[in-house]
């Protein structure tokens, strides 16, 4: 089984429940980045991550999924090791990798 396709999108969910320490915003939304990973045998996995604000578009297009295309879905640890150059061991890489980890 190999990964044959990756698609990311942004879903705006209602912000009717406040985040820890955040002000209530019952009419607002939270932009959740979703990542869908398809395999050549028809299996599909979905992951999600959240940062909010101006970095949401960057997180959506982080490109971490391209590192696993045509590999087996069990390679998530290798991607983590090889992806450190995408922004270090923290920050946007970890947010993007968490969605990939869930999907795989």
Major beta sheet, strand line-up: 1-2-3
So, CATH architecture? 2-Layer Sandwich
Kindly provide the name of the CATH class. Answer: Alpha Beta
**Total count of helical runs of at least 4 residues:** 3
Q: How does this structure look, described?
A:
With 104 residues, the protein is of the alpha+beta class. It has a single domain (3-103), classed as Enolase-like, N-terminal domain (Enolase-like, domain 1), CATH 3.30.390. It contains 3 helices and 3 strands; from the N terminus they run E-E-E-H-H-H. Strands 1-2-3 form a 3-stranded antiparallel sheet. It starts with a strand and ends with a helix. The model has no long low-confidence stretch (mean pLDDT 79).
Keywords:
single chain; Enolase-like, domain 1; 3-stranded antiparallel beta sheet; 3 helices; 3 strands; 23% helix
Provide a compact summary of the structure.
The chain has 104 residues and is an alpha+beta fold.
Fold blueprint:
Layout: E1 3-14, E2 29-39, E3 44-50, H1 56-60, H2 76-82, H3 92-103
Antiparallel strand pairs: 1-2, 2-3
